[in-house]
Design brief:
- By secondary structure, this protein is an alpha/beta fold.
- It has three helices and three strands; from the N terminus they run E-H-E-H-E-H.
- The protein has a three-stranded parallel sheet.
- Helix 1 links the parallel strand 1 and strand 2.
- The protein starts with a strand and ends in a 10-residue tail after the last helix.
Length: about 110
Amino acid sequence: GFRELKLYFMLGLPNQRDTDIKEMAAFIGKMKKIFGNIYLSVNSFVPKPKTLFSEHRFDANKINKQIKLFKSCLKDVKVRYKIGNVKRAELEWKLAFSEGLDTRIC
């Protein structure tokens, strides 16, 4: 059998709602009951140029609120998790869209 299950999630997706985050937490709770040890990796959605999501702006405030909700939904579920740095993800977004700009200002 499995000793540990690793799951990957994204926050800040276009049209992602609080109910979606609550459903993610419920899913994690179900997986915890089935597999026991769960490890989560949670990262910010970073839109990239020349993709369907290139018009989507990175919203650090929204993502930080979603992280807070995500953590509160998991407070009774004993799982290990790592949440990616939102400021670093925002910098990645700025750099991705910085064609011809002086990237030292980011």
